[in-house]
Queue: 2 jobs
Job 1
Amino acid sequence: MAKSILVTGGTKGIGKAILLRFAREGFDVFSCSRNDNELKLLQEEIEGRYPEVKVGVMQADLSRKEEVKTFAAFVKKTTIPDVLVNNTGIFIPGSLHEEPEGNFEKTMHTNLFSTYYLTRAFTDGFIERKSGHIFSIGSIAGLTAYANGGSYAVSKWAMLGFTKCLRQELMPHGIRVTSVLPGATYTASWEGVDLPEERFMKATDVAETVWAAYNLSPHSVVEEIVIRPQLGDI
């Protein structure tokens, strides 16, 4: 029976790179996005490149609790994934004291609450099976405070704390938990920035690192992965 991976927000950037990396190894893949057309294109691409791989996609806005639960139920009809990658997120720059009203709630619900509710939906299955690997895609913004990070930075600090707690709780059950903290990666979030592409990391480099961490023996876990552009933070 094929193993499977669930990556939220898998239609572009780091999420898509991770899905493609695991699909290359024969993993069945599941993902969601708010954009149904992008999901269809993702499904067509994966099925075209890896016809043996099963693809399950669903349109969902994970900033909404009920849609998180609906998406989890959709995946559970088929499987409890071997790998869960909490990747969905938004980045709206701005300072905490000046950002628009409602930005904090929108960012926290998308970046943090979605991870909380989706992880809870699958942990009982992981514990019963005594295996699984949960990755949280955070950011170096969750390690280093900087101006203009605003609610995004707050959400990523919280994401790191959530993942650290989860690691301790699931440790006795054979479930591995890893925080991935990438620096500036060339994705849609950086569109329009007047910087050369080579100044950024590649999404495929993050995906390769996740794949390598997953492939350790059950006796070891990479708790945190910090990846930065070779020339430093942007």
Job 2
Amino acid sequence: MMLRRAMMAGASGGVTDPYWANVVSLLHLDGADGSTSTTDQKGKSWTFFGSGSALDTGHAAFGPSSLLLSGGGNSRVEAASTSTDFDLSGNYCAEGWIRPASIGNNAIITIGTSNSERITIGVSSTLGLYLYTASGGSGAVRISSGAGTVSTGVWRHFAATKDSGVWWLFLHGALSGTSSTTVYPSGSLKAYIGAGAVSDSLFHGHIDEGRFTKSVARYTSAFTAPTAPFPNS
């Protein structure tokens, strides 16, 4: 399968996203140091929870800041409500950047409604980057990059895409593997950043540039990790 290019040159020499109409959420996570709010370029509302979740100007993949999560105190960011924008029944892509401060079993992004109905993109000391899916009483890790592939204090791009029923997981542009599992939720779901669906597996470190794209699998082969913030158009 071919790589679906995430960006293309605009007429004025800038960068545009050919799938902008399919983007349902884009979080640059830019703002003042210590802020507990952020702007979604697609207008969604997100809520910061816990005393250990705030924007931090000390580290960023791009821009002035990123989201810093303490890994404790229920620190996480959630979409304000469930939405079919997070429906996983068709093609999909969830991606962003991480800079872990520690690695245990930490959720980066979860989409679902409960631990038994979700997908989670996470990091683990034994699995590296992984994709876990669950639905209808069945759940398991479907893809992982392997121990030692994710390091603390280093920015790395991650992406999970679903294309024609096949899941693809990428770590900094390298393909970690694929899965044809049919075990995942669909319909009106909620997105969680830095946590599982019941505020577990809390992420410790920085997260930047979160993007959710519906009906498009942006990547289906190895690619070069983005070198600039995701475009706003």
